[in-house]
Amino acid sequence: MTDPILRIAGVSKTYKSGTTALHSVDLDIDRGEIFALLGPNGAGKTTLISIVCGIVTPSTGTISVDGHDALTDYKAARSRIGLVPQELSTDQFETVLATVTFSRRLFGRSGHSAYIEELLRDLSLWDKRDTKIMGLSGGMKRRVLIAKALSHEPDILFLDEPTAGVDVALRRDMWKLVHKLRARGVTIILTTHYIEEAQEMADRVGVITGGKLLLVDRKDALMKKLGKREVDLKLAEPMAAVPDALSRWNLTIADDGRRLRYVFDAEAEETGIPALLTALSGAGIAFTDLETRKSSLEDIFVDLVREKK
Ligand SMILES: Nc1ncnc2c1ncn2[C@@H]1O[C@H](COP(=O)(O)OP(=O)(O)OP(=O)(O)O)[C@@H](O)[C@H]1O
């Protein structure tokens, strides 16, 4: 194993207001992985990212970025990071090219570069390079934020809620770019409310709520371990209550008595379905259709957050 590119150890944050946004968070991020940080509003995602990027000071704990302490060796640590924030706070009167080039120069890189051209082309911004920021649509401004974050060729890219309020074209461009960056070895950490995206994109997932990192696991393992499967039977006759004869199965009635639902562990050796079907027939319960479903990362997430409350 190589050293993690990012090491967060015992990081807590209590704001002046008295709100504790993070409780002793430990997290190692591997080189080149795509990590999704999932959590409801107010979970502490932005606070954590802001601390790593040196925008917010932690109350306790240490952060090491590629071996550089984020507090004592701030410049070296920060130069390895690109941050795409949720909102744009950039000079409205500058052109796209000037803004992105300026961001690059801030990190001591030469201004004019084939890299910037490629970046702007990847983000469909090249044709707009001489347009002032204030003349861009909201979606285009988001693209500029991404270009700025990537302007100095960082090793780690943070995307804070990257697709909130973004149209399909930008989403597509963004995920294409994420794949390209990853192929180049860039580590990507994203926070998202769009769980399907974490499911599609991430190698590992961290679930945070109330400032605590509840779990971190490989996405596949998480879905295997915590995933549920469901069998949904459409009943020929509506049913008011689950008969006693069927009490050994975890059954619920749905759709005003028209459906019977059986939920079981996706990994269970014995699903219990054959016995259930026999018992249904023995109890004279007929069904007209049967559907099966596997839980999504979203179901797992909702269950987890509910459990820990
Ligand atoms: N500057 C601040 N001063 C005081 N409290 C803050 C500050 N920033 C955030 N908080 C509080 O810290 C907690 C965590 O907020 P944070 O923005 O990190 O959550 P988040 O997971 O990013 O939420 P969201 O998904 O809504 O962006 C919240 O209770 C929030 O109100």
Provide the descriptors you would attach to this structure in a database record.
309 residues; six-stranded mixed β-sheet; Rossmann fold; alpha/beta; Alpha-Beta Plaits; elongated; binds adenosine-5'-triphosphate
β-strand percent reads 25-35%
The end-to-end distance, rounded to whole angstroms, is: 35 Å
- Average pLDDT confidence is 87
- CATH evolutionary superfamily of the largest domain: P-loop containing nucleotide triphosphate hydrolases
* SS summary, helix count: 10
Biggest sheet descriptor: 6 strands, mixed
Layout of SSEs?
Blueprint: E1 6-14, E2 20-29, E3 34-38, H1 45-52, E4 60-65, E5 68-69, H2 74-79, E6 81-84, H3 96-106, H4 114-122, H5 138-150, E7 156-160, H6 168-183, E8 187-192, H7 195-201, E9 204-209, E10 212-218, H8 219-226, E11 228-235, E12 251-254, E13 259-265, H9 273-282, E14 287-294, H10 297-308
Parallel strand pairs: 3-8, 3-9, 6-7, 7-8
Antiparallel strand pairs: 1-2, 1-4, 4-5, 9-10, 11-13, 11-14, 12-13
The structure holds adenosine-5'-triphosphate.
What does this structure look like?
The chain has 309 residues and is α/β, with parallel strands linked by helices. The protein has two domains: 6-223, Rossmann fold (3-Layer(aba) Sandwich); 228-308, Alpha-Beta Plaits, CATH 3.30.70. The chain contains ten helices and 14 strands. Strands 6-7-8-3-9-10 form a six-stranded mixed beta sheet, sandwiched between helices. A hairpin with a 2-residue loop joins strand 9 and strand 10. Helix 3 (96-106) runs parallel beside helix 5. It is elongated. It starts with 5 loop residues before the first strand and ends with a helix. The mean pLDDT is 87. Bound molecules: adenosine-5'-triphosphate. Adenosine-5'-triphosphate binds at residues 15, 17, 19, 21, 39, 41-47. Residues 6-235 form the ABC transporter domain. This is ABC-2 type transport system ATP-binding protein. Pfam families: ABC_tran.
